[in-house]
Amino acid sequence: MDYAALRDAVILITGGTGSFGNRVAARILEHRPREVRIFSRDEKKQWEMQRSYPHFRYFLGDVRNRHSLDAAMNAVDYVFHAAALKQVPTCETFPWEAVQTNVMGAQNLCDAARDAGVKVVVALSTDKAVKPINAMGISKAMMEKIVCSQNEFACKTIFSCVRYGNVMGSRGSVIPLFRKQIHEGKPLSITVPSMTRFLMTLDQSVDLVFKAMTTSVGGELYVRRAPASTVRNLARAVARLYSARGEAYPVVETGTRAGEKHHEVLVNEYELQRAIEDGEYFVVQPEYRRYRAAVHSFGEEYTSANTQQLENVEEIVALLKQMGDTESYI
User: Fold this and answer.
1) 126: nearest Cα among 182, 194, 198, 77
2) What integer is the mean pLDDT of 3-26?
3) Spatial CB neighbours of 245, under 8 Å, sequence gap ≥ 6
4) Active site annotation includes 128
5) Which entry of 45, 128, 140, 261 is annotated as an active-site residue?
6) Alpha carbon of 295 to those of 150, 273, 306: distances in Å?
7) d(CA 56, CA 12)
8) Collapsing DSSP states into helix, strand and coil, what is residue 80?
9) Cβ–Cβ under 8 Å, residues 198 and 304
10) Which domain holds residue 31?
11) Phi and psi for 313 in degrees, rounded to 5?
12) Is residue 121 part of a domain?
């Protein structure tokens, strides 16, 4: 990918104090931008991030507030939109909060970026937006529709989305939870042993965003291929790597949580009909502008059940080692 555009550019990351924001900020610095701006509503996390990146500019605000976005967006070239409410149980309890941040916040973001003359906006989405069964997924599906619809009309800003499955080690994900449970001597809590989840590292998630930033012409949705494993095998791998007891570490089954799917779906059968394959990526073209013929038949989907399965625990351990630092609760 050509990262030359990042040199001497001004980049804004909304929700920038999270796992993705920290990792993408570190990667951006390799390409000598003029300025990196971090926009978030958590003063404490901004203070913590400033210790590692004191030369960034920090904007305290909320995507629900258009005025705070306008202040941060002035003279920005590229926007990575990671601000969201993403915890499924929380959004199930407070669905209106999810709507205000994930839906109305996305519209505010698009309006501010368009008015400021931003070159490219890439918004981060989730597998839960595909055939959504929970409030978080429904709100993120609407976020995708809002962002990808912008280039249906005359607009100089290029808008696109990326969609992730499980990002290993990200804040609030299961791997840091497993490590916390091991640290506290508690059994590993798994929902259903046969449940499958994609396994993508944070660096791969950053590569996906850069892919969208450098190749989008407007309205596309990008998905990266990734292997998957069962929750049980993932727990076994974490126990082998981080516990002295290895795979003998105790496990307790808790059952499926509210709004949780057995398998993750990253591209559904309707989207796959207008998706093209670009190396490791699927690029789902907007319905209002298809620029290349797709090759998939109706009925096909891309899921954590039909992707490459990591059944050997050693393979998962190797991927955990590639993962790097996690957002640990320890």
Assistant:
1) 198
2) 90
3) 239
4) yes
5) 128
6) 26, 7, 18
7) 10
8) strand
9) yes
10) 4-165+199-224
11) -60, -30
12) yes
The domain that holds 12 is classified in CATH as 3.40.50.720
- Rounded Cα distance between 301 and 265, Å, is 7
pLDDT tens digit sequence for 215-244: 999 999 999 999 999 999 999 999 999 998
Select from 305, 129, 127 the least CA-distant residue to 230: 305
Q: Percent helix, strand, coil in the chain (nearest 5)?
A: 40, 20, 40
Per DSSP, the residues of 264-311 read -EEE-TTGGGGEEEETTEEEEPPTT---S---PPTT--EETTTS-B--
User: Using alpha carbons only, what angle is made at residue 179 by residues 176 and 180, rounded to the nearest 5 degrees?
Assistant: 85
State which of 63-77, 187-201, 255-269 shows the largest mean pLDDT.
Answer: 63-77
Structure tokens at 62: 């909320």
Q: Under a CB-based contact definition with an 8 Å cutoff, are residues 135 and 96 in contact? A: no
Q: What's the mean pLDDT in 72-84? A: 96
Would you say residue 99 lies in a domain?
yes
Dist CA 182 CA 177 (whole Å): 9
> Which residues does residue 276 pair with via DSSP β-bridges, in sequence order?
283
- C-alpha distances out from residue 304 to 182, 196, 231, 243, Å: 26, 6, 11, 27
Instruction: State pLDDT tens for residues 246-299.
Output: 888 999 998 877 777 889 999 999 999 899 999 999 999 999 887 777 777 677
pTM of the model: 0.91
Q: How far is CA 7 from CA 2, 28, 120, in A?
A: 11, 9, 15
CB 198 within 8 A of CB 307: yes
Two tokens, residue 266: 């990253």
Question: How many structural domains is the chain composed of?
Answer: 1
